[in-house]
Structure formats: C-alpha cells, structure tokens
Design brief:
The protein has 322 residues and is α/β, with parallel strands linked by helices. 55% of the residues lie in helices and 8% in strands. The chain has a 6-stranded mixed β-sheet with strand order 1-3-4-5-2-6, with helices on one face. The longest helix has 19 residues. The radius of gyration is 22 Å and the shape is globular.
C-alpha cells in the first residue's frame, strides 16, 4: 500500500486543488505497488490517471497582462530516456526528479529538494531540452521566460516584470526556464553595465533567494564568464554541457535516423565528420538527410548521404565561429 507520506501528500494536494501534484503522487503510488509485485493494481492506477487527465485536457493559464508574450507555456513530451547526454548529467537529472518526488520525505527532516538549477554550455548542447525533460518527468508544464523581451529601456519596468514572474512562480506550480540568462545575470562589476541592469540583477538575486515555492527554476546560459559570481551560490545545482562525444553522437544519429539507417552504415566516417557539432546541429543534419531520402523515394540512408548534410552543418558552424 501507499506510504504514510504519500497518503498525506495526496490529501494535501486534493484540498489545495493541485491536481498536477495529485497526479504525480498517484503515479509514485503506482510505481511503489509495481515494485511490490502488485502489477495489476499499478496498471489500474495509471489507467485511472490517464483517463482523468484526458478528460480535463490542458490547463489554460491566465497570465498578468504585462507578462503576455514574455512567458511561453507548453506540455513537453520528451522523456529522460530519449535524451542523449553524458552519464553524469543523466544521473544528476535523475536525482532532481527523485528528490522532487520525495520532497515531503525530505521536508519531514527539515531538508529541501533541489529545484534551482543553472545550466551552462554552448548553443545546441541540450540545455533547453533538459528543462523539457524535467517538466515531462515531473508531469509539470514548462514556462519559458523570454529574457530578451523581459529587459526594457524604461527604468524600473524590467524589475517590476521580474517581480510578477516570481509571483507567478509562487502561484502556478511548474518548471520555469530563464533562457539566455546572462541578459539579466551579468557581472555587476562590468564597467559597460548600466545602473538599471545592476538593479535588475540585485532584484533577481533577492527574488530567487526568497522564493519558497515548489516550482523548478532553471537558468540557462551560453556565456558563464558574464555571470555574476553571487548567482552561483543561489542555485542548488550547476550543470555543464558540451558538444557530444563519439558514443553520444552515435546514439543521437541512430535515434534520429531510426529505420532509415542503411544495413552497412559506415559509422567511423560519420562520427569523424560530425566531431565538433552540437546535438542540435547533428539532429538537423539527420533530419535533412531523411528529407532528402524521402524526396528521392528512398527508405535507407548511407553514411555517404548523411555526410552531405553533416558537411553543410560544418560549413554553417565554421561560418558562425569565424
């Protein structure tokens, strides 16, 4: 049967009308029953949850007028098993998910689950996908804050919008992603920085420190050197991303091409030429190769055919870096 903590959490989530939390705990109960060998019961619980969620459909969130266009909301469908990442990243994400699901147990001992995460790495290496995966695993909606639209030239307006966002984080349980975070998290000692942006950063530091919600707050940046050092202390975890190694590139290509992989696919050649490309660039190259094959009435792709689109991405990559 469900543990005492799970029963209490189910009751609390019911009376606070937090259905997503209720579903999450109910799924934990199903997993617990499955481990006990009660597979039929676990199956029934999952069926009930799936049926009720389909009846209710997606929730529509009413954002404050000033935040319309600043926060994009979605229900991601990418599970952790579909994410190609180093083992250490996958294990740390599993820990975030596990602590979230067991947060009541941690709270009973005066501890908090990790939920403020900083993601650092080049473009296209999986930072945004990480936020999507965590939202999917935790059965939460993903709210992406458009930081470039958040920052305005009017004194005090950016800080006011930032306060509204943190009010939303407190009120609306979910995963919140601050993408291109260095736009507001830049070093306060930067001589080129303006006083308004320093005030915005100070406000963010204060808001994130005072935040007591159960929402996950994720900040992603391509430029860690621009970040103020005080920010790092405000996050429970800092994850570093990089372009995929050989084995990860092989998994990514195999996953995207799927049944299009030719029987005698020359992996050595494809892996050598894709070295230095990001996850996103490899994904695009594979999808371009699939489109070429479909338009040519082919159902298999050789390494030679993939190399054509990989080299196109290499050219784009060199053009941008140059």
């Amino acid at each position: 049967m469900a543990t005492a903590e799970q029963i209490k959490s189910l009751i609390r989530s019911h009376f606070t009308d937090d259905m997503e939390r209720f579903y999450s705990i109910a799924l934990q109960v199903a997993a617990h029953e499955a481990r006990q060998g009660h597979k039929a019961l676990a199956h029934d619980i999952r069926d009930i949850i799936d049926t009720e969620r389909k009846k209710k459909g997606p929730r529509i969130i009413s954002f404050p007028k000033n935040l319309k266009g600043l926060v994009l909301t979605e229900d991601p469908a990418i599970p952790l098993t579909a994410m190609v990442a180093p083992d250490n990243i996958r294990e740390r994400l599993k820990r975030v998910v596990h602590e979230y699901r067991q947060q009541d147990k941690l709270k009973s001992h005066g501890l908090k689950h990790r939920r403020k995460i900083l993601l650092i790495g080049p473009p296209g290496t999986g930072k945004t996908m990480t936020a999507m995966v965590l939202a999917r695993e935790l059965h939460l909606q993903l709210h992406t804050i458009q930081v470039d639209r958040l920052v305005t030239k009017f004194m005090g307006e950016t800080g006011a919008k930032l306060r509204q966002i943190f009010d939303l984080i407190q009120e609306e349980h979910g995963v919140y992603l601050f993408d291109e975070f260095d736009a507001i998290g830049s070093d306060r000692s930067n001589e080129n920085d303006v006083g308004e942006m320093r005030r915005v950063l100070n406000s963010f530091l204060l808001f994130i420190e005072q935040d007591t919600s159960d929402s996950l707050i994720i900040a992603a940046t391509n430029n860690p050197k621009l970040l103020d050092h005080a920010l790092f202390r405000r996050f429970d975890d800092v994850l570093y991303y990089d372009n995929p190694e050989s084995e990860q590139r092989k998994s990514l290509i195999a996953n995207v091409l799927g049944t299009f992989v030719a029987p005698r696919f020359v992996w050595e050649q494809a892996l050598k030429e894709s070295d230095g490309l990001s996850h996103a660039e490899i994904d695009h190259a594979c999808r371009d190769a699939i489109k070429n094959a479909i338009l040519a009435d082919q159902n298999k792709i050789s390494a030679t055919q993939l190399l054509i689109t990989i080299k196109e991405r290499q050219g784009t990559h060199k053009g941008i870096s140059g």
